[in-house]
């Protein structure tokens, strides 16, 4: 194992989450590499400090968030992005939905006329 691979694995090594075989490789490299040994000691002490802090409960902010949503209402996007951007977004959404809805129908209606199908229909070429 080289130094850069060892450094990549170090945090997981310290946390004890590496597969046994990989952890043994890291341990073997660290024993013979003073530079990685030093890094491992730093990483270990950092991890110990973080673990000593224990778990922290995130504050419950759902009430505040839902109140904020109710307060701004449907005009939120208009006030944030402007009326032109909102209308452009609605037009784009309608265009996409229309394209998805009507594209297969158009293809079936004119199989030889579209540029996506360059080869002529057999019935047409046989008539000339
Ligand atoms: Zn090393």
In a nutshell, what does this entry contain?
With 128 residues, the chain is mainly alpha-helical.
Average residue-wise pLDDT: 83
Cα-to-Cα separation, first versus last residue: 74 Å
Outline type: elongated
Our Rg estimate from Cα atoms comes to 32 Å
Q: Which series of helices and strands comes N to C?
A: HHHHHHH
Structure description:
With 128 residues, the protein is an all-alpha fold. The model has no long low-confidence stretch (mean pLDDT 83). The protein has helices at 3-15, 20-32, 34-53, 62-72, 76-81, 83-109, 122-127. It has seven helices and no strands. Bound molecules: zinc ion. The site of zinc ion has 6 residues, from α1 and α3.
What key phrases describe this protein's structure?
single chain, mainly alpha, 7 helices, 0% strand, elongated
Write the layout of secondary structure elements.
Elements: H1 3-15, H2 20-32, H3 34-53, H4 62-72, H5 76-81, H6 83-109, H7 122-127
The structure holds zinc ion.
Zinc ion binds at residues 3, 6, 29, 33, 35-36.
